[in-house]
Request: fold
Amino acid sequence: MPANDERWLDAEAGPVVRPYALTQGRTRHTGESFDLVATVMATPAALTEPVALAPEHMSVLQLARAPSTVADIASDVDLPLGVVRIILSDLRELGLVAIRRPVVMAERVDKHTLREVLNGLRGL
Amino acid sequence: MDYGVSDPAGGHPRSPAQHRAIKILLAGGFGVGKTTLVGAVSEIRPLRTEEPLTEGSLRTDSTVGVEGKTTTTVAMDFGRISLRSDLVLYLFGTPGQQRFWFMWDELAIGALGAVVLADTRRLADSFPAIDYFERRAIPFIIALNCFDGARRYDTEDVRMALDLDPDMPIVLCDARSRESAKDVLITLVEHVLMTASEEPVSGIV
Reply:
């Protein structure tokens, strides 16, 4: 009996649907750029005002109901990062998500935080 | 414990949105053990990027038979380590070859530091990554993955071969071991902490 995951197309064959088809061919997102570890969070509007969205946009929005990072969301929806960035910028333009710069960026990492990281690692 | 979680002076608990994300990069040649190291110390997760093929990669990657192919999938090693409820460390590893540098430029922004994972049998594979981090003044350390059967070299020989500063940490590691991978990260953060303390002197404009 053929298992469902025994498809003749493997990852090497590339995606069945070209990823950028989901973004109408756009490969660059609009608006302010955001970091891979920027925090994404659905806005109150996303919870109250239902809007018609593509399924992929819907899935991303769903994941952003709890604060999450861009990288975490891309991993969870299993879409390429570039595609997720475009979806996120679409959602931001619609006012459905807020994207915040990571609180800790290299130029602002203070020694206190570095020691916290060290203690955290030692305690693993 | 040095840092109490509670602050009797009226500290407010951080809202989840204020969680702090630390980004550490892991670079190295193909097959050097990046995925193994990320997996040893963190919850490894799939993350891929679909990137438009550049002219450079078109020369490298044969597109015969798929001439319509304009993008290429690059898998990244992506790991997450929750250090505290509000402090998460993210590990990103990508291939070290020059043609993947478009990804490094993006990853490097805001990174705390980097680990260059090297194999003593193919030290030259780590040159591009070392050059990259040196040019961008991103603090990094060298971790030598001790493969079974590979000749052990003295770290000072490696330092000479790679033309590294005397204070640049070089550690031997076993990428399969959690403790060893942990030590690599600890060495990096200690190095960053040390570099940070020198900043006021060297950073005066």
User: Anything to note?
Assistant: Residues 15-122 of chain A form a domain with the Arc Repressor Mutant, subunit A fold (CATH 1.10.10). Chain A touches chain B at residues 11, 14-15, 18-20, 27, 35-37, 39, 41, 66-67, 69, 71-72, 74-75, 78, 80-83, 100, 102-107, 109, 111-122, 124 (CB under 8 Å).
